[in-house]
Design brief:
- The chain has about 325 residues and is an alpha/beta fold.
- It has helices at about 5-15, 20-25, 85-100, 150-160, 180-190, 195-210, 215-220, 230-255, 260-285, 290-300, 305-315, 320-325; strands at about 35-40, 55-60, 70-75, 110-115, 125-130, 135-140, 140-145.
- Helix content is about 45%, strand content about 15%.
- About 35% of the residues are buried.
Length: about 325
């Protein structure tokens, strides 16, 4: 499975404040464990999914048990997948065989996993028991469903210091996350972040996740004038999230047509999504896009060229510089 913009944004978010986020996800007191680092898994041969790297494996130490080392896999899903149980098993085997806490013979990590479902309700833990045969296989995963969380309650806990501020980008996915009062409270709390770059990340990421449930419009309108979109990486994720939504919408619209029509609709949707993504990035960075520039962008049919325009939109210093990348009007 290739990483989608929502998965990539989650992994970025996890690395902004790993210890506070893990404490909250695992329902542990901060003093109950020590986060040492993210384990380097680049050399591990994970089965299947050759284009995917399991790069969020945390090395944690259980304080109550003398610092016993755990390798804890963090996984994120836009919606619960039926094969997550198998994927976790596929991660665990090479982690246990190929990574060691120390050079001592026989030293091995204890293994665990936490799965975050951005939408829907997941159930990837499993208990397989055959008593007569003496067989028992159990995988107990800490699973958190963001859609079950109430935005107002989470904001209350963040304000009281009982939940980490790194949860702010997920608020748009929670119950009540699109209400105007919730967004205003979000802006107040996010605005208290002293780190300007992190504050910008929170604002950009909340728009990425809002796209996943179709409430990006209200968030985008509410965040106008709130200087949040600065990270080029976040801009690209926003663009990809918009493209994904538009392609899916086009594909659904062509679902009852012929195969050729469906393919044409998908291609058309992707091109349209890329064009609109480039224009939205431009508007977020430079203000209202001149009508002639917008018209020329929407007239570009080639996906490869539109991809370059999305990157240009995130990097250019002016509309004039961006327009030099466009075909003649």
């Amino acid at each position: 499975m290739s990483p989608n913009p929502f998965d990539q944004a989650c992994r970025y978010l996890a690395k902004l404040a790993p210890a506070p986020l893990l404490a909250w996800l695992l329902r542990l007191r901060p003093e109950a464990f020590v986060f040492r680092r993210w384990l380097d898994t680049r050399m591990i041969r994970f089965p299947g999914e050759p284009d995917r790297t399991c790069d969020t494996v945390a090395l944690l130490e259980d304080v109550a048990r003398g610092g016993v080392p755990w390798a804890v896999v963090m996984e994120f899903q836009i919606e619960p997948g039926a094969v997550m149980f198998g994927r976790l098993l596929g991660y665990f085997s090479p982690l246990w065989l190929e990574l060691k806490p120390s050079k001592e013979a026989g030293d091995r990590f204890l293994l665990g996993a936490v799965v975050v479902n951005l939408t829907g309700l997941g159930e990837c833990s499993a208990e397989m028991v055959w008593p007569e045969a003496g067989l028992e296989t159990i995988l107990k995963v800490r699973e958190r469903n963001v859609s079950e969380m109430v935005a107002g309650d989470v904001l209350d806990r963040i304000a009281a210091g009982e939940a980490p501020a790194v949860l702010l980008p997920w608020v748009s996915l929670m119950q009540g996350g699109g209400e105007s009062g919730i967004i205003e409270r979000w802006k107040d709390l996010a605005g208290q972040e002293a780190d300007v770059r992190r504050r910008a990340d929170y604002g950009g990421l909340v728009l990425v996740f809002a796209e996943a449930i179709g409430c990006r419009g209200v968030w985008k309108e509410a965040l106008k004038g709130w200087n949040v979109i600065q990270s080029q990486q976040v801009l690209e994720w926003q663009a990809e999230a918009r493209v994904q939504g538009r392609v899916e919408g086009k594909a659904e619209g062509k679902a009852e047509g012929k195969a050729e029509g469906k393919a044409e609709g998908k291609a058309e949707g992707k091109a349209e999504g890329k064009a609109e993504a480039a224009l939205e990035v431009l508007e977020a960075r430079l203000g209202p896009v001149p009508a002639d520039v917008a018209e020329r962008v929407r007239a570009v049919p080639e996906i490869a060229r539109l991809n370059r325009l999305v990157v240009s939109a995130a990097c250019c210093a002016s509309f004039e510089e961006f327009a030099r990348e466009l075909p003649p009007g």
